[in-house]
Amino acid sequence: MDDQNKQNAEILALENFLPYRLNQAAEKVSQKFAQEYKKRYGLTRPEWRTFATIGQFGVITAREICNHSPMHKTKVSRAVFSLEKRRWVKRTQDPEDRRLEHLELTSVGQTAYKDMVNVARQFEKNFIDSIGGEDAKLLLTALNAIERRFEG
User: Fold this and answer.
1) Which residue in 18, 32, 106, 150 is deepest, having the highest Cβ count within 10 Å?
2) Structural domain includes residue 71
3) Separation of alpha carbons 143 and 138, rounded Å
4) Can you tell me the mean pLDDT for 118-127?
5) 3-class secondary structure, 56
6) CATH code of the domain in which 65 resides
7) Where is the HTH marR-type domain (predicted)?
8) Angle, CA of 96, 102 and 107, to the nearest 5°
């Protein structure tokens, strides 16, 4: 092995490293979608993820939100507080364990959530359409394979 090939073997070009590329691609798509919910609702990423998770599950605890959409508990706590100020989320203390609070959408929150679901679905459709038929199918197949490979 000559010196140039040896040196290239010892260097990791981050921009070509698959885990980094996956992260960068996900971040770019996430940032693009963040522009949509920021513009429409003024939500931060933790607020959006918290709101979407509560809407998905109906009634959920902050700890369960942290487990579902990996965020630190302080980010979830701040997001819940912000969503409460908007009157989109309400807390109910658990009758058996007073340390636990169950979170759910208010009627105003449910209306906003239904609208946001439509915005998210339209964003996803536009994104998939922009990739194109066969490439989109390949992307979804590859994502499924990656998720299966790293489950549990």
Assistant:
1) 106
2) yes
3) 9
4) 95
5) helix
6) 1.10.10.10
7) 15-148
8) 135
**pTM of the predicted protein model:** 0.84
| Residue 83 burial (10 A CB sphere; 0-12, 13-18, 19+) | buried
pLDDT, residue 135, reads 93
Q: How far apart are the first and last CA of the chain?
A: 40
Lowest model confidence (mean pLDDT) among 7-11, 32-36, 46-50, 65-69? 7-11
* Torsions phi, psi for 59 (to 5 deg): -130, 130
Nearest alpha-carbon partner for 92 in 82, 102, 107, 105 = 102
For 115, the token pair is: 């609208």
- The domain in which residue 92 lies consists of 29-149
Residue 78: inside a domain? yes
- Give the C-alpha separation, 116 to 114, whole Å: 5
Average pLDDT value over all residues in the chain? 92
Q: Which two structure tokens, joined as six digits, stand for 126?
A: 């536009």
What total number of domains does the chain contain?
Answer: 1
